[in-house]
Design a protein that fits this description.
With 178 residues, this protein is of the alpha+beta class. It contains five helices and seven strands. A seven-stranded mixed β-sheet has the order 1-2-3-4-5-7-6, with helices on both faces. The longest helix is centred in the first third of the chain and has 20 residues.
Amino acid sequence: MSEYKAMLVRAREEEIEEMAMMAAYIVEEHIESYYGRKQKAYMMEHIYTPEHMLQEMEAGDRFYWLDCIPAGEEESVLGMLDVCGYLSCSLQEDAILIKNVYIMSEIRGRHILRECLDLLKQDELPEGISKIQIAIPEGYVQAINVFEHLGFTRIAKVEVPLNERYTLNCLQLELSIR
């Protein structure tokens, strides 16, 4: 049982600047140590900008705030102090494709991701969605292990384009939801 209750709250266009700030925090915490300074700079300039994220939202991607409420509390007003992560995804023909999921390091290990995925399954989804997929860089062994622990299975090795010149070698994992 978690000491927190998770809530997914769909982000609005006017909140995309705050979402980009959280993404910058994520990149600062993870990306440079894994990919290096140049890749971090590229991601900050081209991917995790409010403009790019807004384009993705306008193209149909969904962005969610992950709000964590201490167990036993009735309600929490969503605000930056309550937010403990975010998730972005796109809807494919038969799958939810998770593009980014991040839970702040201070709150990890408390079953929040499991609750987050359960909530994602309950959101308004088009008919025919039967699985959740995510591509995780092969070097992120801990993340792969977490998703496998949650019932995801490895379905393929894929190359995810980072830009015109570079791709990222990933494992694609999948969870059946219907």
